[in-house]
Amino acid sequence: MMNIIGRKDEIAEIKRLYSSKMPQFLAVYGRRRVGKTFLIDEALKGKIIFRHSGLSPVDKQNHKNSLKEQLKHFYLSLQRQGMKKSKCPTSWLEAFFMLEMHLQSIDDGSRQVVFLDELPWMDTPRSGFVTALEALWNGWGCHRDNFMLVVCGSATSWITDNLINNHGGLYGRLTSQLRLSPFTLNECERFFHSKGIRMSRYDIVQSYMIFGGIPYYLSYFEPGRSLAQNVDNLFFKSHAVLTEEFDRLFSSVFSRPEEMKQIVKILCNKRSGYTQEELAKAVGLTVGGSFSTMLKALAAGDFIEPYIPFGKGKREKHYKLIDHFCLFYMKFVQGRREIDPEFWMHNVTSQGVSSWRGFAFEEVCFTHIAQIKKALDILGVSSTQSSWAVKGDDGTEGSQIDMLINRKDNVVNLCEMKFYNEKFTVNKAYYSKVVHRQNVLEEMIPRRTVVHNVIVTTEGLTYNEYSGIFQNVVNIDDLFEK
Fold it and tell me: How many domains in the chain?
């Protein structure tokens, strides 16, 4: 097995399942392009006896692949991998029975691993797929000690609803589940190093603002090119490989991709997000069943995140866009009639890009909240984090705080994020702004609770007469901790 970056716990779990003397049913899921198939291929290299991948729901000609085509594709996979020629199945029950008979005919007592990739794609409307999968496992697989079924899919909500939280015949049938997350900054750095790509931590953070630690995107980086050159190659040059990735993401994962994209586009307009009622009104849909299901699916796919703003109740739950790739794509790529092939190189120092970096850095920090808590030495303290905003009026200035960490040990960390290419200097005006925010916050929290100001920045803090307003400084190296 090649040296895989990260994924140690996941690999150990897969090996544990393989080495057991019991039937195993493993589901691996996570955002599209996060490396699920690669992980399974490497962890089980040379051990998979049968593999099949579902056909994409929609091909390049916008043709929807039907049950008949899915079954024919499965039948061809069976033939390709040793099954004697027969007739094409007409249902998934028949298709999985063929698989069972084939596995029995070649069973020599050793572990038999079956890998079904892009499982949700195989479940076309009215196909009876889930029922047939239930029959495969409950009626056959779970009774064979050497059988190991590994399923994988990018439609996380499908995996969650039909396998993990199934209330029918597959209830509690998974023997293990692995949710694959994007790389951390630490893993991105190690990945670039393994590919011979030299990049400063300052630029690796910027790459995270754009690609969000998705291995598939990072694999296109070319050694010897700067970050800006790689960004231009991937997004802005003629026929760039990621130009149509945004549309592919949604069409390959969701049954209603256009409505999903519309929700994401609305969320892109407001960093703190919207309540469900506000979002439904902006999109032009009704709050209720189908809309709630769409929000649930987007959250399951790690595109959006539900959260309760500090000081609000459950009825004020907000939804915000957290996918770095989508945020970047909609800001700089989508909708441009004429694209400069060296757009990023030409705009890397522009005011618009500088402003975007500030907002994008906040999202990187939320993604690496564990590293921030570790730097503050509060990993063992129960806490929650969210953004916070207070509207001003004629007599009071409004306040907006990048991140609040509300701790159970009677401390609230008021965190400011600053993405600079040098040490950040607190001047008198900024000092007054932080003091104002602290005062507003102190009026809202219990008297037994105190506020600790934290600054999260790239190069640290210049110490002067005003810098003492911050009790803690978290720098870029802290974000690269494991």
Answer: 4
Among 14, 20, 40, 13, CA closest to 111? 20
291 and 323 part of one domain: yes
Separation between Cα atoms, residue 204 and residue 213, nearest integer Å:
10
Residue given tokens 């991937």 in the structure block: 234
pLDDT class for 8, splitting at 50, 70, 90? very high
Query: Once rounded to an integer, what is the mean pLDDT over residues 208-216?
Result: 97
Query: Is residue 20 assigned to a domain?
Result: yes
Question: Do 39 and 117 reside in the same domain of the chain?
Answer: yes
Q: How high is the pLDDT of residue 427?
A: 96
Q: Residue 390 pairs with which residues in a beta bridge?
A: 399
Pairing of strands 176-179, 24-29: parallel
Cα 189–Cα 195–Cα 198 angle in degrees, nearest 5: 60
* 147 in Cβ contact with 50 (< 8 Å): no
Give the pLDDT confidence score for residue 400 in this predicted structure: 80
Same domain as 150, residue 13: yes
| DSSP assignments along 295-309, one per residue | HHHHHHTTSEEEE--
Quick one: tokens of 189? 């750095």
